[in-house]
Design a protein that fits this description.
Elements (H helix, E strand, L loop, with lengths): L2 H14 L15 H26 L5 H25 L4 H15 L9
Length: about 120
């Protein structure tokens, strides 16, 4: 399934989502607080994923123990990225490919480093 198809599924889900919050409202100059809320929600999901990694790193859990939860948090992050692509009307896949090309040029010398 392409990112475009995933974005469409997310848009359909958001349109049917019953909540006091306008999950499917488009972003514009008049709805900047909605952009802020969505970014805050995205940041929260990144924080939750980071917290799991912190606990794995310090040895509280193994990666294998927490991998299902980590995958779920990463899926939540993708959900908010898809929402933003819908609300801001941009092609997430095209934006990724454009940025990847820039990074390929920018980091060409780093590709030879071994870790």
């Amino acid at each position: 399934m392409s990112l475009e198809e995933l974005a469409r599924l997310q848009k359909e889900f958001d349109a049917g989502h019953e909540s006091r919050f306008p999950w499917d409202q488009e972003l514009s100059e008049q709805t900047i607080p909605l952009l802020g809320f969505t970014m805050l929600a995205l940041s929260g999901e990144v924080g939750e994923a980071s917290n799991l990694v912190k606990k794995i790193w310090r040895g509280d859990y193994t990666l294998e123990e927490k991998k299902p939860e980590l995958v779920e948090e990463l899926a939540d992050i993708l959900t908010y990225l898809l929402k933003l692509s819908n609300e801001l009307h941009f092609d997430l896949e095209a934006a990724y490919l454009e940025k990847r090309e820039k990074n390929t040029e920018r980091f060409a010398n780093y590709a030879k480093l071994e870790f």
